[in-house]
From TrEMBL:
It comes from Solirubrobacter ginsenosidimutans. It comes from the Bacteria. InterPro entries: AhpD-like (IPR029032). This is Carboxymuconolactone decarboxylase family protein.
Length: 114
């Protein structure tokens, strides 16, 4: 049986060992079979989908950068899921993502008033 079919079968059956590994966080990367950068970007996309708070964005962006993702790839991740999460959620996520990337959102908004 292929790795992915075995993992999906175990997950569908609620395999306690697999579920525990998935819920453990970082070991989840090995369990998923994804490369570090792809794994970090997928996790970041779920941050948008669940309407997470700023701390979650910060941690997800730090993981993605540490895994080799560029700021453009990180922003692209948000754009890639807009069709699924909806424009309002993307609009709400954009400033939090920008802050997590070190962008001064307040200064940019002040510039609009000038």
């Amino acid at each position: 049986m292929d790795d992915y079919t075995d993992r999906l079968r175990k997950l569908a059956l609620g395999d306690e060992v697999l579920v525990a590994a998935v819920l453990a966080g970082e070991p989840n990367r090995e369990t998923s079979g994804l490369e570090d950068k792809i794994h970090a970007l997928v996790r970041l996309s779920t941050t948008f989908a669940v309407d997470a708070g700023q701390t979650s964005y910060q941690l997800a962006v730090e993981r993605a950068l540490a895994a080799g993702a560029t700021p453009d790839e990180i922003a692209g991740t948000l754009l890639a899921v807009v069709g699924l999460t909806g424009v309002p959620r993307a609009v709400a996520a954009a400033p939090m993502l920008a802050l997590a990337l070190g962008y001064d959102v307040d200064a940019a908004l002040e510039g609009l008033d000038a």
